[in-house]
User: What shape does this take?
Amino acid sequence: MSNCQYAQLQEYVRLVGPWCQVNVGSYRFVLGHCYLASGEGQKALQCFQEAAAEVDKEEFLMKLTGTDEEAAATAPRLLYYNKVLRLLEDIGLPELVINLATLAISEAANDERSQAALWTRIFKHHLDLGHNSQAYEALTQNPDSSRQLDCLRQLVVVLCERAQLRDLVQFSFVNLHDEVVSIIESRARAVDLMTHNYYELLYAFHINRHNYRKAGTVMFEYGMRLGREVRTLRGLQKQVNCYLAALNCLRLVHPDYAWIVQPSSGAAYERPGTSPKRNYDGEFAANAVSQQIDILELKDLEKECVLARSRLTLAQQDPPSAAIAGGASSQEMVALLVQTGLFDTALTLCQTFNLSLTPVFEGLTFKCIKLQYKGDQDQTEVWNWLAANQLPTVITTKETSATDEAWRLLAHYLEKFSSQNGQYHRCVINKLLSHGVPVPDWMLNAYKEVDAAALLRLYLNYDQLESAAELVLEYVDALLGKGHQYFGIERPLSATASPVWLPYTSIDQLLRNLSESQINEKMYKNLKDKLADYHRLVDQSSRNRLMAR
Assistant: This one.
């Protein structure tokens, strides 16, 4: 009908209304249509409400509500309301739909199905209008659990898309808490990690309810997926933040409950719609029924956090390595860090995971060798990796070179991580000798004090006969009382001193090699004479001790 026709019809109803008392409800219904056509929604709603009282009395309104079968199943007035509600929805008047549906609920007191449909309508239009609190209230009033769950899912998705997360987190969700968590978890595991923030939402949801262990579990899962699926610099940064958040959460929990569950190595979190019996390739999974899980305690999360930080540090120093670092194990990360020159980070990682420091010392030694004998390297790159490692002091008295700084860094590490058996000194000296590089005096002096016999064996392994002979001569002199403090000997040989010893096997090997070499005849003679003096003193000291007894 045209606007002119609606106006004529409205005038007709106005003229008939005062004297015609037949089919009053039908007149009011028609007048409501007219008001809708002229944009007077509130007047139309008033007319429809007045017509509702006459639905079961007038033939026109009875036919309007539907067939006899429908009328038998549902009260006529409810059918009438549904008809009017559809009309208002078609025209696009959500506020009127809400008002009329709220009125209709009182007519459906004994009809749970109709109540559920009306509450669903109210929820939908409140949500469309941005009335989040009213939509939530309508959801909680819905008597149909399946419809209620559908509305809840829609509420979560829409508020996330609108970034209205504060409302979502602060709703109480009485008796719906588990359903909300399940919905958000499903969405989090099904969508792109870098474009949606469902994990952050779930974290905030648990934090707001002081459920710190679940909040920590959520953030750890988020971080683990980032490391598997988003191997970029940004992804590594977010992974570190996730692990830090998980750590903070578990530190707020009683120590007896400071643990989380994760799938065992090689497993993955299930995603909605995946087959419980087949893997991602479609092949049958033999262990699908009984998936193994791992329990992670606070110390395990601290290790994962250190590993994630080392990955991020590597990616920041060398951005192209981010893709490789994202899935590297602790041992692999040590190798990558050493290769890039991040020795401080590599040492921290080794100590955290109780790994040997040998690869770090070997890697730094090799870099020192390259700097010493291959001066064509890019100095900017060298200074960059040197700057990434902290030295205890800074030399300001003279200009220093990158080579000097590298050797100083090595000396600092040897002093900081020195052990009783000098294993890292031995590792560095072995690396130097294998490349034919002379060992610095400061390093030799430090190692002689710890294990002179091992240094002798290293010289023999690399056929450094002259250096080996000089070492034996110095060592024998130390036993005889000349420079004994440089070899860690408390008291030289005497009748009252503690017993001393010589590495005779290595010395015999040295003597044989020297005897076979015509070049080292003088060295051979000097060594034999020195050993003869030592044996005479040993014999004399032994006799004096026997006499003293």
